[in-house]
Amino acid sequence: MMQVFGASVQGASHIRNGRECQDSLKKVVRDSGAVILAVADGHGSESCPYSKTGSFAAVNVFCKIMDDYLATYDGQQEMLFTFLKREGDTKIAQEIDAEWKRRILRLHTKDKREIPLNEDGDKDKEAVYRLYGSTLLGLVITTDFIFAFQLGDGDIVKVSEAGVYNIIEADKILGTETHSLSKPASWKKAITLIRKREENEPRPVMYMLSSDGLSNSYKNEEEFQKTCADYYALLKEHGVKAVSDQLKTWLQETSEMGCGDDITALFAYEAERSGSEKNGSANCSV
Fold first, then answer.
1. Candidate CATH numbers 2.40.50.140, 2.60.40.790, 3.40.80.10, 3.60.40.10; the one for domain 3-270
2. What is the pTM of this model?
3. Which of 14, 126, 136, 273 is most buried (most C-beta within 10 Å)?
């Protein structure tokens, strides 16, 4: 059984400047043992004043859509695998894009915020979306397969005795720019991956979703991957509860010594089949 936990911390530079944490995270643990993980990073720029709301909407949209699919295909994992393999980077990405934008318009209207007009005098919905800009990382883990989704920066990593590797090699953009849910047809920039889980897959295994504040706090990819391996070693030695209890402190220290940005890390950890899990439960609070 996967044990899930995570934390978001306000970046050191954001604390100094009085800016709230723009990151959000969400997890769903289903009775079947399948888990859904989502991390989003609001842009936080002056042109995106409501990006915390945007990131919160993003993680909720991903988890709701994927939870609905898991419910629809309950007991039919092979059919769901085939569907996601065929439609993951089109239909699923389009659904996420459309639903996020629907929710943003609803929230914007509910909060009685003005909708600007375009040159033709029509409501400029694109201008509204830009106020809430956010990235999105998502991961679904079942007993049979994993499905990963990425729009914008951040990292989705797997660690086992076989080593550390990025599940998705994200499309890197130079500078501070990133792909965003707020952009027109954002689904076209989404990257997805679906892969079968092998019966003899090495255990323990750790999956981690993290906003770019974590990787950007290290001087290179090698140092970042070493940190991922360190978390894996800590989970093996001390168990989920011990790591979960200290996670916020460690992430805050990383931000202070690193890039100063908000940092979110969300973990799914599966111990050895022998049942030798340390302390912790599948529903660790985040």
1. 3.60.40.10
2. 0.92
3. 136
